[in-house]
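Re: Re: token formats

Sure, here are both.
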Amino acid sequence: MTVDEWLLESDPAIRWQVLRDLHDSSAADVEAERSKVATEGWGARLLAARDPGGVWAGGACFPSGFDGDMSTGQPWTPTLPTLTLLRELGVDPAADAVRVAIEAVRETGRWEHAGQWFFDGEVEPCINGRTVAVGAYFGVDVDGIVARLVIEQLPDGGWNCEAEYGSTRGSFHSTICVLEGLLEHERATGGTPESIAARDRGEKYLLERQLCRRLSTGEIIERNWLQFAFPTWWHYDVLRGVEYFRAAGSDVDPRLAAAVDHVRSRQCGDGTWLLDKSHPGAVHFTMEEGIGRPGRWNTLRALRALKWARRG
């Protein structure tokens, strides 16, 4: 079986993205496959997991009644990670079940932080960035969160959830979450001059550091960023960084070269990429065969990133 056949025998969420990003299939064929995400496979399972009360697992970022114990990882079943995953699956925002779910979250969802309405956001940039991404994708007005994120950008161009405690340096984790959110918002609304400028500064923050290196010494900041996970949730890694620039339609900046080379180097002899790691915590269900095994999501993401890089 070829890598292409292996990818296409998977869930509709992968198949439609293979058709769009690797095959350059017709818009009709892509949309026909994409339409299945809300009614079949992983997408349908996620939509069906929503509570009768409107949200997932009774909470926004954490399940209802969560006691704060993350010794076995952060739970990934509440509303924000679930909507994040639905966006990454590419579920059609216009599908009936999706519209019903988003309206229920709009009407009932509140943050654990201080009871803010879900689509008003809360205080941490990494959370607000992902909320902007899902809100913009699903057609909700998140302009207020965007304005807050623009104000909260740090002098180095990044964002950091520890800024409220005095940190003045950007965090790759927070920054990638915000950049993805600003990009989705820009696609949906055109953005604002301020948000567009903030996204540009945020991109420069990553590029100046070659997506994983200290600006001061050139040393790799975290070795585990060289391994790839999916879902990424709020965590950064090099493939996620390269994928952001691909999604943004950017020119292939020379400062991306080492990161792209690293993605290429991780390809196995059979043409696949492994699921190198998985961020611990409860999930609705697993989508891959296990850590250290060929991963369809990482393979799809790496192949389309390299395809984009070659065009540059």
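Second one below.
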Amino acid sequence: MILSAELRPFETPDETRDVALHATIDIEGRSYVLLTFRLVGFGDRLVFPPPEPALTEARALKQADFVRSTLLKTMGLEPGDDQLVPAKLGRTDGLWRSTCLEIFGLLPDGSYTEFNVAPSGHWAAYQFDGYRSGMTELDGSVEIVDVRRDGDDFELKAWVNWRGWPHVRAIGVSAVLETIDGGKAYWALAHPAEKPDFHHPDSFTLSVRPEPA
């Protein structure tokens, strides 16, 4: 199932008349989704945290580790626990302070998860028992596939890994966009409150038919 949606800004119509923010989620009942954000027409008005060299190098090591493990398995050997790169590569809090792209997954019991993804390669993942309550660190991860800038357009693709995706019944996507003057623009599928609130239950507007448990 591929879900596509266009996000809209919160009370900033004049500044965003010629720009657009699209999101695509490829969700197939697996323990991961492919998330794509495409920003069109923003030009030089936004701040994009650049890819961090240390993370880029570490991801190359992680790919090499995967190849090494695969080769060992084909030879009938156990890879062992000596992985070159930790699983929490790039996990960082406070990403909303600059340009940050977000996806939420709502479960049938009212709990939900939040993933934050930054162009720098950093990410964060949280679990909530209910509306802004019971926040804990989520056992999930993000792998950025591609980040590219093409003139006035920007695109980011990422694998968002979490074993709960097959049970999600609704999805929300949103973004905090930092402008070059230091301001913030808040984009989401819906803005049901009087101020930007990406956690509001009515902002999870993409319906998903959950797979059987």
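The helical segments are 53-74. Confidence is low (pLDDT under 50) at residues 81-86.
- S.
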